[in-house]
## 1
Amino acid sequence: MTGSVDEPPAERQTIRLLLNSATLPCGAEMDLLFEQVADGHAAELNDHQRDCVHCQAAFGELSVLWAPVVEQAAVPVAAPPGLTEAVMRQIRQLVRDVWYTLQTTNLGFIRIAARIVAGVARDAARTVPGVRVALGRSTHGKLAALAEQATFKHRLPHAAVGVLGRTAVVDLAVAVRYGDPVQEVARNIQKQVITTLRENIGLETVTVNVNVDDVLIDDQ
Amino acid sequence: MRPEPAISDRYLVARARDGYLDAYEMLVQRHSAMAYRLALRLCGDHHDAQDVAQEAFVAAWQNLERFRADSSFSTWLYQIVTRRALNKVTRGRGADAVNLLDEAADPGTAPDAQAERNLAADAVTNALAALPFPQRTVIVLHHFEGLSYAEVAEVTRSSVPAVRSHLFRARRTLGKTLEDWR
C-alpha cells in the first residue's frame, strides 16, 4: 500500500508540487519554464534544459496542463449578427443627421435623407474604374445653411433640421489606384455620381466635391 | 457592390474624423469580431459582451478627436473594451459561464470526443472567470488575442515587467484550477 484512497494520483501531486514551487531541484525558475511552455517555445530547449530531467519532466507536465488553453484560444469567435448595424444606428442617432432633400410633386412631398444621397453617391463612385475606396458624406454647404436658417432652425434650435431642396451637395473622399490618371478618374466620378443621383433620386442640381486623398497600389 | 479593397485603419480614422460615417462603419466591421471576442472572454456572458462591444464602438467614435495618431486603432479599441468590460463585471451582475466551443462545434466529431472537448472548454472558461480581473485581462490579451508584452502594457497602461509579473501569477492560478478539473 503506497497511499490512502483519498490521495490524488501521482501525476496530480507532481503538477501541484510544480505549481507551488519557485524553482525546480535543478535551480530552474518555474515561472520562466511555464512562460516558455505557454508561449509555445517548449521545444526550444537551451543547453541546460537539453540535459536536465527535471526541466524536461516539467515541460511535459506543463504542456499537458496548458493544452486546453491553447485549444480554447484557437476557437474562432465571430461577432454576433447585427452588431455593426446596431452600433451605426446608435451613432446616427447621436449625429442627428436629419438633412433631407425635398422635392414637391403633384402628389405631395418626397423627402430623401441626405445620408441616403451620400450613400448612393458613394456607391456610384465605387463603380468608376480606378477607384479603390470611396466614402460619402452630405455637407451643410452655404446654401443648406441658409435654408436651415430660413426654415426650421429658428423654430427647432436644438435639432439640425433643414432642407436642401432639389440641390444636393455631396462630398466624396476617394482613394484611387496607383498609376491611373487622377484628374480623369475624379472627373469620371463627378459625371457618374451626378448622372446616378439624377436618374435614381431625381435630384436636378447636384454638386459633387471629389477629394482624392490617397493612392493605393493594387495589393495594398 | 464591389468588394471593399484593403485600406489602412489610419486612413479610415482620419476620414471618420472628417465626418464620413461610412469610414467609421468600415472600422466597426473590421474590428467587431475582435471587440466582441475580447469582451466575451473578459465578461463571460454573450449579452454583456455584446453590450460592451457596442458601447465601446460608440465611445470610440465619440472620442475620435482624442485618439492619438501614433497609436494603432486596434490597441486603442482594446483599451476601451477592457475598461468597459471591467465596468460591466464590477457592476456585480453574475456572469453566466459561456462555452466558446459550442459555437464552433464540429458536427463530424464523435460525441465522446466532443463532450470531452466541451468539458475542457468549460474548464478553461470557468478557470478564466475565477481569475481576478487584472490577471484575466493579461491572460486574455496575451494568450488569447496574441498581443506582445509591450502591447499588453500599452493597453493596460502598465509596464512590461508588471505585465510579466501578472502573467506569472495568472498562469499559476489558472494552472491550479485546470489541474483540479483534470
## 2
Amino acid sequence: MTYVLSVIALASVFSLLTLALNLHFGIAGLINFGIVAYFAIGAYTYAVLTQPPPSALDKYALGLELPSSVGVIGGIAMAVLFAALTGWPCLRLRTEYLALTTFAFAEVLHSVLLNTREIGNGTRGLSNILPPFYTTFPIEDYDLWVAGLMVAILLLATIAMQRLARSPFGATLRAIRDDELAAAAIAKPVARFRLEAFLAGAALAGFAGILFAWYTTLVSPDLFTANITFTAFIALVIGGVGSNYGALVGSFLLFGIQEAIRVVPLSDDAAQLLSSLRPVPFGLALILILRFRPQGLAGQWAV
Amino acid sequence: MSGEVDTAPAAAADAARADSAGAQYQLEATGIEKRFGGIVALDGAELRVRRGTLAALIGPNGAGKSTLFNVITGVEAPDRGNVAVAGEEITGHSLSRVAASGVARTFQAPRGFASMTALDNLMVVPRAAGERLLTYLGPWGRSRRIVRERAEEVLARIGLQDHAGTRYEQLSVGQMRLLEIGRHLMRDVSLLLLDEPTSGVVPSQQQQLGMLLRDLRDEGMTILVVEHNLGFVMPLVASVSVMDRGRIIASGPPAAVQKDPTVIAAYLGGAAS
Amino acid sequence: MTTIQTLVFGLVTGCYLLVATIGFALVSRSEKFLNIAHAELISTAAFITWFLSTRQGFPLLLAAVLAILGAAVLGVLIGRVVYWPIRGSGAVVLLITSVGVVYVLHGALETVIAPGVYTLNTAGEGVIDIGGIRIGAYDLVIVAAAAASVLAVHALLTRTAMGLRLRARASDESLAAARGVDVSQVSTQVWVIAGALAGVAGVLLGLRGALTTDIAFDQILLILSVSILAGLGSLYGVVAAALTLGVAMEMSTLIIPAGYRTAIAFALVIVVLVLRPEGISGESVRARAA
C-alpha cells in the first residue's frame, strides 16, 4: 500500500513538472531542453534555506534553518530568477538554438552543483531536509497524507493551468507559437509574452522541485540530470503536447509502467537487465507517437 | 525619384503645400537603402501615400517591393532612410511596435494561426482582460463576450460568417487572405499594407476583396497594395507607384503610368518571373 | 605538464572532436535537423571495436573496420526508416524523435554491455618524443584520421552531385529536384557517410581512453558545442571550431579543476549563442518578429 502511495506521490510531483513543460512547449512553443534546471534549483534552494547549519562532516556552507514557507517562497523565487537571467538570451533565438541554450544552462548548473561543494555538498548532496508537515500529519498514516497532499496540489495546479490555457493569455501564447510574425503583425509584444510564459513555467517547475525535495528528503546532482527533462518530454508527447490532461496522462502512464515493471519479482541480474532495457520502449513510444499519432493520446493539436 | 500620390486635379494645390506638412501623408518612406551582403535590394526608394487613398505599388519581379514592405513594417531595418506614419517616425521599430502605431500588413504567403478556428483567429487580436500572466486568473468572461460579438461582426463583413468554426488550415487561400485583413479590422488601424492579396485567389473572391478595400477607403483607411495582378489593381486605385531595381521609377494616376515609356521598358527588360 | 604539451593534447583532442562532429554537421546541413543520436552511433562503434578486439580476439584494425561498417549500416538504417518518413514534420519533431532514437540505442547498448568501464588493449602503444613533447602513437592516428576525414569530406563536397547539393545554401527540396538531383539518394549517401564518420570517431574514442556505456552523453555535449561554435549548418567552420574547443578545454585544466571542463565548453557555447549565434560561419539564427 505504501508503495502504491509513493508511486502516486512521485507521479504527481512529476506531473507538475510535465505541466510546466506543457506551458513552455505545448502552449508557448518554447523547446526547453533544460527544464530540469528549475526543478533542481527549487529543490536545492529549499534545502539550503531550511536545513540546519553544516556539521563538522558536511562540506556545504549554508544552512539557514528557516521555516518551510520561507523555503517554498525562496525556492520558487530562485527558479524564477534563474529563468529570468538565463531566459533572456535564450528566448530571442530560434527553435533548435533555444533548445541548445536551455540545455547548456542546465548542464552548467549541474556541473556547478556537482563540483562546488560549498553549495550542494557535491555528490553526497543535502540530506537533512525535513519532510513536510511532519508534526501535523498523523504518523500512522503519514504516507497517505503526503500522497494526498501531492495529489491535491496537482489538482489545483491543473485547474490553474487549464484556466491559463483557456484564457486570452493562453490564446495569445498559442498564436505566437503558431506564427510569430503574424502575432507581431497584430501588435502583440512577442518577447514579453514569451518571457511571461517562461517565468511562469519555471515557477511551476521550481515548485515541483520543492515537492520532490519534500518527498525524497534528499537532493543530489544525480537526481537532476537531463534524463528528467527528456522523460518529461516523452511523457508530454505520449500524453499529448498542448494538453494539460495529456501531461497528466503521460506522466502517470510512464510512472505506472515503470513501477509496474519494478514490482515483478526477478533475480538481481534480470532486474539489472530490465533496468537497462527500460529506455527502449520509451524511446520507441516517442518515435512511434511522433510518426503515427503526433497529437498523443489525449491531445488535439499535433506538434 | 519620389513617388508622390495625387488623387484628383483639385488636390494639386494641396500637394504643393503638402510637401512641407507631412500630416497629409499617412505613409512616407524616404531615401530607403538596403543591402543583403553584396546585393542592393533598395537603392534610395521613396514612397508617399496620402491619407485616405487607395494606392498601388507595382513592378517586375525582384524590384524590391516586398523588401520595401519589410523595411516599412520593421521586419527589416534599413541601412539608410526614414519611414514615418502619420508624421511620426517609425524607422527601425520592430514589427509589433510598428503594428501598434496603427499599421496593418499582410504577407505574400498568407499567415495565420493554424491551431485555431477562423473566429478564434479574430478573437485573439484585441488586447483583452485576462491576457497577461498576472491577470489570467481574474475574470475575463464578459470581456471575451464583447470581443466575440465584435469578431462575429468582422467575420460577416469579410464574408466568412459561415466559416466561424472552420479550422484555419481548412480555409482556402482567398479565405485566409480575407481573414488576415479581418484580423487587422479587429484593432485600430489607419494604414493597411497588402502584399499581393490576389495571389492564389479565385476571381469571385478577388471581386469581394476589391469591394472590401473600396469600403475601407471610404471609411478613411489609407491602403497601399503591392500587386502583380494589374487587372485587379489598376481599376481599383487612384495612384500607382512603379518600382524597379530598388527605386521608384514612376508614379501617378494608373492611366498615365501605364503609358510611361520608362515603365514599359522596365517590365519588358526586367527580370523574367 | 608544460603549456606546450597541454597545447598538443588540446590539438589532439581537437582532432578527435573534428571527426566526431563533421558527420553530425553533414546531417545537420543535409537533413536540416540536429541528430542527437549521432553520439550513440559513436559509442556503439566504440563498443563494437572493444567487443571484437577484446572479447573475440580480432586484430584491432579488423575490429575497427567492422565497427565503421557497422556504424554506417546502422546510421543509414535509422536515417531511412526513422527520419526520412517524417522529414516534412519540421526540425522540432525530428529533434525530439532523435531523443527517442537515443533512448532506444542507449538502452540496447546498455542491455548488451553491462554498465561499467571498459578499455581497448592499447598496451604496447609507442610514445614518440619530439623535443620534450610526448605524443602517443594513437594520438598520431587520431590526427591522421582527422586529416583524412577533412580531405575526404572536402573531396565529396567539391566533386560529387551530393556535395553540390550540400553546398548550396538556400536549398529546398523542390528546387533541388527540379535541378535533377535525386534528393532521396543524396540523403541516403549522407547517412552512410555520417555513419561511417561516427564509426571512425568511435574507434578513436576507444583509442583515447576508457569507455563507459554512458559516454555518448558527454560526446553529444561536445559535438553540440563544436557545432554551435562553428555555426550550425557550417561544414568548414567545424575544423576551426573543433581545434579551438579542444585546445580551450585542455588549456583550461591548467587553471580550473578538471571537473569543470564540460561546463567550460558549455559556458563558451552560451557566450557564443548570445553574442554571435551564427557562430564562426554566419547564418541567420534569431527569431524574426519582436
